[in-house]
Amino acid sequence: MKSIVITPQNNDELRAVSSFLKLLKIKSQILSDSQKEDIGLWTLMQEEKDSPILNKTEKVNFENWLRNGI
């Protein structure tokens, strides 16, 4: 199922949106900053995983990568 993310500008808007959703009997959940960061990180990881540019077979020397970024 798809989701909608709503970002209220202040606590009054948060209460109003929450009350409206409750009135319509629509389930909602308030996400913490940490949870939002987790979602963003997961999204980036999925984009990288599906990228045709990413070479998943090439081995990289960790020390060289740390020194040169390659």
Would you kindly provide a brief summary of this structure?
The chain is an all-alpha fold.
Molecular structure report:
This protein is mostly helical and 70 residues long. The chain has one domain (11-68). Helix content is 53%, strand content 0%. It contains 3 helices and no strands. The longest helix is centred in the middle third of the chain and has 17 residues, at 33-49. The chain starts with 10 loop residues before the first helix and ends with a helix. 0% of the residues are buried.
Task: Please write out the topology.
Layout: H1 11-23, H2 33-49, H3 62-68
Number of E-type strands? 0
Shape: elongated
What share of residues are in beta strands?
under 5%
Q: How many structural domains in the coordinates?
A: 1
Give the low-pLDDT segments: none
Separation, N- and C-terminal Cα atoms: 39 Å
Q: What is the H/E order?
A: HHH
Number of helices: 3
Mean pLDDT: 87
Major sheet size, sense and barrel closure: none
Rg (C-alpha, Å): 20 Å
Tell me the helix content: 40-55%
Structural class label: mainly alpha
Output the keywords:
70 residues, mainly alpha, 3 helices
